[in-house]
Amino acid sequence: MTGNVFTVAIVTADGNWMWCRPLLLMAVVMSGSVAIVTAHAETLAVGASQRYKMPSEAAAVAMDGDTIAIDSGEYVDCAVWKADRLTITGIGPKVVIRNKSCNGKGLFIVDGNDITIRNLTLLEARGPNLNGAGIRAEGFNLKIDNVRILDSQNGILAAGVPGSAIEINNSAFTDDGNCKNPSGCGHGIYIGHIKMVRITNSRFFETKEGHHIKSRALRTEVIGNRIRDGSAGTASYSIDVPNGGSLIVANNTIEKGPNSTNKGAVIVIGAEGVTQPTVDLIIRANKFTNDNEAETVFVRNMTASPATLTGNTFKGKVEALTGEGQVQ
Fold first, then answer.
1. How far apart are CA 316 and CA 143, in angstroms?
2. CA distance 190 to 142
3. Cα–Cα distance, 144 to 116 (Å, whole number)
4. Buried-exposed string 74-105: b where 16+ CB fall within 10 A, e elsewhere
5. Is 232 left (phi over 0), alpha (psi -120 to 50) or beta?
6. Rounded to an integer, what distance in angstroms lies between the CA atom of residue 170 and that of residue 235?
7. Could you give the C-alpha distances from 23 to 13, 94, 249, 284, in angstroms and in order?
8. Does the reported pTM lie above 0.85?
């Protein structure tokens, strides 16, 4: 046994012993000999004084269930995470991954399932197609906690994976987004067709041109966040749910700044055609400020399902709702 990983002794054809790390519980039969092994997850340490100097080195050897612990420091690197059930975590106050692109997609490409990423800063994600992301989510289920994504063409860009859920908590997205990509805009967060996305206790600030949050999920929950353009932000909508689907927006502080590229609306539902069931549209206890002289619509509901607005407060020129629904 090496570290906290069980290895296995296998009898080879010539009668010698060979030690290896197993992928799974398995039986190896060689020359009539059988070795039964149990796989245990390993912690892969990354840092200047560690075995793995860069996150990409750990990603290349990581196996299902491993923890990747990244020491404080700045890494000009990107990584493709292929194993399942990984925990990728920063150790210490400042772990920064920046300014490199894997497969033209961004800093972290998450192909594995049931991944957790926490305590990291991802900076300057760029791609040759102008669509680079801090995190490119392509696997099934992803949890993000205490992650900062700054100055990137997309903060998080998530592919459509039916049945998948993404949870984002206690994270920050600053100065992300752009609309220079010929095929479409980048955003603070852009979620494809998945089962659910839940965004809690997070901050969106000074998004550029695209939306702070764009989601095509069957259910989108945005709870307890701060979503602000500020004086330099040029975001379009604060929340865009273009194909319908259930939407819960509660207890957020939202501000539309003077340089927004779309001053007409804040939360928009169904702008690109309603293609999925829209059961719940609940907008409650949010505080919204419009810093423009022109009036803006807080919720533009373009679906046939009624939206329910309760306990929201407004500052500036605001029309609470257009489309189906009621304001209480």
1. 36
2. 14
3. 6
4. ebebbbbbbbbbbbbbbeeeebbbbbbbbeeb
5. alpha
6. 21
7. 21, 32, 43, 48
8. yes
> Cα dist. 42→45, 301, 309 in Å?
10, 49, 48
Query: Which residue type does 8 have?
Result: V
pLDDT digits (tens, 9 = 90+) for 41-100: 999 999 999 999 999 999 999 999 999 999 999 999 999 999 999 999 999 889 999 999
Q: Which residues of 223-261 are buried (b: 16+ CB within 10 A; e: fewer)?
A: bebebbbbeebbbbbbbbbbbbbbbebbebebbbbebbb
State the Cα–Cα distance between residues 160 and 319, nearest whole angstrom. Answer: 33
For 148-195, what is each residue's pLDDT tens digit? Answer: 999 999 999 999 999 999 999 999 999 999 999 888 899 999 999 999
Other residues' Cβ atoms within 10 Å of the Cβ of residue 115? 23
Please name the amino acid found at residue 52.
Y
How remote is the C-alpha of 294 from its chain's centroid? 33
Q: Name residues whose C-beta falls within 8 Å of residue 204's C-beta, 6 or more positions apart in sequence.
A: 172, 173, 174, 188, 189, 212, 213, 225, 226, 227, 228, 238
CB distance 41 to 53 below 8 Å: no
- In the block, residue with structure tokens 């010929």: 182
